[in-house]
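hiii, so i know i said id send this last week but things got crazy w the move. better late than never?? heres the sequnce for the chain we talked about at the cafe, plus the structure i predicted for it. fair warning i was half asleep when i ran it
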Amino acid sequence: MTMVATEASVSTAAPDSKGVGPLLRAWRERRRISQLELALRADSSARHISFVETGRSRPSEEMVLRLAEHLDVPVRERNALLLAAGYAPRYPETPLDDPALDALRDGMERLIQGYEPYPALVVDAGYTVVAANRGITMLLDGIPEKLLHPPNAMRLTLHPEGLAPRIRNLREWRGHLVAQMERQLALHRSDQLRALYEEVTAYPVPEDAPGEEPEEPVPYFALPMRVEHEGRILSFVSSISTFNTPMDVTVAELAIETFLPADPATAKYLQTLAG
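okay and structure toks below
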């Protein structure tokens, strides 16, 4: 398994020239919360929320953070709100290879190694793979080097020279990944993430893209990724974990994705490889 140090994958959003009010209003509307509901949650008043959003009142630093918390604003964007309100950013952005994050890196490596022989990886907010175990390496066997440096999970999966030709339910799995990116774009104002989205959605999908079902359908409990490996069809369902209450932008944007065998045949095959 390799840990890859990367630069921050999503740039901190520049503060809005009109101040913090329009930004807070945009987040409130995105969450579909009324001014009254937000006021009740934040122990304020609808009148004060209205004044903040229209620029008639400058919120305190504590109020900006309280509103951001109740609006579930991502950590990076909370820094942008603070800057727009005239305050210093609260959350640092520590490079992943910084010694201060040694314990975090070691913990993630032990976690995904312990998940073997099943695949597991760690990605940042731009889907750059920063760590991966041998289960992932097995799936990526034969992928061109140009897609591995730097490795990007979306590009590796959906590129015509990546895993895409091997995925037996490519249309369904592609739809799942594209929807996932769209949810991320709704939370992060990132030119880099937008560029990645436009790139992968432009990849051609053959009319005869793999999509056949197994001869004896299995009642999967979640949408699986069905991928061919050395003449076998392996089925996985994925789970994504993030860190609870992160206080650093880098940590907040890390996600651990694990792939669980979706049927007994896949589990048995992977255990055989491990043996």
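btw Residues 20-84 form a domain with the 434 Repressor (Amino-terminal Domain) fold (CATH 1.10.260.40). thought thatd interest u
miss u guys!!
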